[in-house]
Amino acid sequence: MKHLTNTLKTTFFLAIIFGVFALEGNAQETKKRLPIIDVHVHAMKVNPNFSSEMCPWFLKDMPGSGPNQNPPSFINTGCVAPLKPAKTDKEMQEAILRANKELNITMVVSGDADIIHKWHSAAPNRIIPSFGISNSNQMTVEAFRDSLSNGFYKVMGEVAPQYQGMSPSDMSLDEYFGVAEELGFPVGIHMGTGGNGMANITSPKYRASLGQPFLLEDMLARHPKLKIWVMHAGYPMIDQMIALMGANAYVYVDLAGFIWSYPQEEIHAYLKRLVQAGFAKRILYGTDLMMWPGLLETSIGVIENADYLSEDQKRDIFFNNAVRFFNLDASKFE
Ligand SMILES: [Zn+2]
């Protein structure tokens, strides 16, 4: 849901909300938590005019609308304790660094290059920079290769052709995936979820059908050494997701975004089905964090409270699967 901010711009342009940043986490906590790898964090410049409070699981109610009415509200803020957005870049960075330390979270971060550099210089061992492209108009293949080769970036993502009305197997992206394959970069690709009324509100090119996991198959066949993870786990297309992972052993998924936006019963049914189908070793933990620092703990709670997961499965999802997928050194996290 990387384009959520665009949605906010449109939906909330009259509702400029200056949230008071809430200090999340317990500063007194001294016991070191077990490490977590969050594979899906967005770095962006904070714009207080376009940020809003947010109630987790806001998509539990998706009212309809009409073409001549106001668009449906994308995020509801009517809960008892909505999450507050960070008000400044500095606040956001402080929240990130605090999460690195107190919650023991290492993050794969994509988005604004300046912000990623700042976070990375403040916490070089905790920030894994990721470089994304979703449309060949953004840069040439040569420029893309240079960016991936400069030593700073370790991951390619978030690639989100769905919002551009394109399949991930569209040939205009093929050479970029070829570069990632050649350089051994894992790639995160947005597939599936878009929220309520995405095509009506901000992304007229968005197509639900372009989030079908099967659309990855041709691209994967052209790049047999490419390692990808499907961001948002192809929600809600579980059957295709399971079939694709069965056919392609290098495909992983992340749980970002949908686990704190769609109804809880629904998202647990989805996660449970992935595990039930045998893929507990291929699920990565992620938040899709944008501007609400409290979301880190909200998302962690979803996994911790999943009573159908064993403690080992939870540790696999929070940490071990990402160590394996990104070829990290687990001893560095102790
Ligand atoms: Zn996404």
Automatic annotation (TrEMBL):
It holds the Pfam family Amidohydro_2. Residues 37-328 form the Amidohydrolase-related domain. Keywords: Hydrolase. PANTHER family: 2-AMINO-3-CARBOXYLMUCONATE-6-SEMIALDEHYDE DECARBOXYLASE. This is Amidohydrolase. It comes from Maribacter cobaltidurans. InterPro entries: ACMSD, Amidohydro-rel, Metal_Hydrolase. GO terms for molecular function: carboxy-lyase activity; hydrolase activity.
